[in-house]
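Appendix C reproduces, verbatim, an entry submitted by the partner laboratory led by Prof. M.T., so that reviewers can inspect both the input and the predicted structure.
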Amino acid sequence: MSRPSVSPPAVAMLVAVAVALTLLPALPAVAQKDVFQTITPDQFLAIMRAEGQDASIGPLGEDTVINWEISGFKAVIYFFGEGKSIQFYGGVSGNGSLEKVNAFNRDYRFARTYINNRGNPCLELDLDLEGGVTRARIVDYLTTCRMILARWLTDVISAD
């Protein structure tokens, strides 16, 4: 009795499938390497610096925050729930009206602005890490913060 012959391309395909099946359990670990369920100020700062942002870690009261300078404007990144969520915060003294604040909140989805208890306009943007976020999403959040801040400064602070 003769054995059936297997062509070299078929053998190569069988080897490739066997190798792929052996590596399959390792894929989730590799894929989750850059997914953050929580983030520390040091990790967040490292991402910011890798993206060329002017930022530093510092204390603010009892909190550890990131101080972020964006085109001369000083903003703060707060960490909540042991790094399960973060918040961009910026504010200025005076120069805000309720009408401008309401118009901004109506026109922009990913941020909120308000007049604080001292009469100063403030801007906030949140990022929730529940369920995990990628490094790319964090970079996108930084871009969104910069873009929204520019619009806020124009529409709420500088608008006539």
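Residues 34-157 form a domain with the Yope Regulator; Chain: A, fold (CATH 3.30.1460.70). Additional entries are available on request from the coordinating office.
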